[in-house]
Specification:
single chain; alpha+beta; Immunoglobulin-like; 5-stranded mixed beta sheet; 4-stranded mixed beta sheet; 9 strands
Amino acid sequence: MSVRLFSRSRTTVRGVALVAAAFVLAGCSAEPEEGGEEVADAPRETVKISITDDGISPLGERIDFPRGQSVPIEITADREGSLHVHSTPEQELEFIDGVTAHDLVIDQPGIVEVELHDPDVVVMQLEVR
């Protein structure tokens, strides 16, 4: 009889473990699944770019970028110009002497280079996922 009670207890523990696993797999966790999309209304951190005679920042840095979501871009410069975004379709981010704000959306996943043509440098690479 004691063997039978132990057997039922083990079955109950397995059942509880299976139910808990089912809740986790059903998406009850707060973290997005691998490859899953984040909530469209989630606020995004502003990508800040500085273009001055003293230097350019970031310079060639790779930045994670969400696919299909609007991300604020803030360009602080000491001259007018434009950044060329090698996305599909390609985009231009024009800026003035001072602070310029843009919202950038990239729909296709991959690595997208953002270039300045005067001087000719890659400002950043966006890893779109």
